[in-house]
Amino acid sequence: MTRLRRASPALLAAVLAVAGLLHLLVPGPYDAIVPDLLPAPRLWTYASGLVELGVAAAIARPATRRQGALVAAALFVVVLPANVQMALDADGGLARALAYARLPLQVPLVLWALQVRRDAASPVPAPR
């Protein structure tokens, strides 16, 4: 297993933890992308931030890594409508182009989480 592959769970946990903290500390931009059909955007922003922090903690802990990584993959799928909403609401120009360019990034995030899950199922060889 490569060094990057061994660090992958920690990196994924860090990405999720930073995202979760940003949802809690700077909620405004996240409120704006909560799909219109959901009431109380701030509630959804805070809830998703707490979920991201919980998933990050689960991935960071070897005993819960497999389950945490599976939840992370599902989370990346579930937040896709918010990313679509962000693209639809973008003011145009560069903001719209970046929002649409971001949409396909959910695919590698899902694949990354699933790889972390697969790796957690494999026995980890001792470092050389």
Kindly name the structural category.
mainly alpha
Number of domains: 1
What is the element string, with H for helices and E for strands? Answer: HHHHHHH
How is the biggest beta sheet arranged? none
What separation lies between the terminal Cα atoms?
11 Å
**Given the C-alpha coordinates, what overall shape results?**
globular
Kindly state the percentage of residues in helix: over 70%
Number of DSSP strand runs: 0
pLDDT under 50 segments (min length 5)? Answer: none
Average of the residue pLDDT scores: 90
Structural Rg: 16 Å
In short:
With 128 residues, the chain is mainly alpha-helical. 76% of the residues lie in helices and 0% in strands.
Give the SSE layout.
Elements lengths: L2 H23 L2 H4 L9 H20 L4 H14 L1 H10 L3 H10 L3 H16 L7
Describe what you observe in this structure.
The structure is a single chain. It contains seven helices and no strands. The protein has 128 residues and is mainly alpha-helical. It has one domain (3-120). Helix 1 (3-25) packs across helix 7 and helix 3 (41-60) packs antiparallel against helix 4. The longest helix is centred in the N-terminal third of the chain and has 23 residues, at 3-25. The radius of gyration is 16 Å and the shape is globular.
Describe this protein with a few key phrases:
single chain; 128 residues; mainly alpha; 7 helices; globular
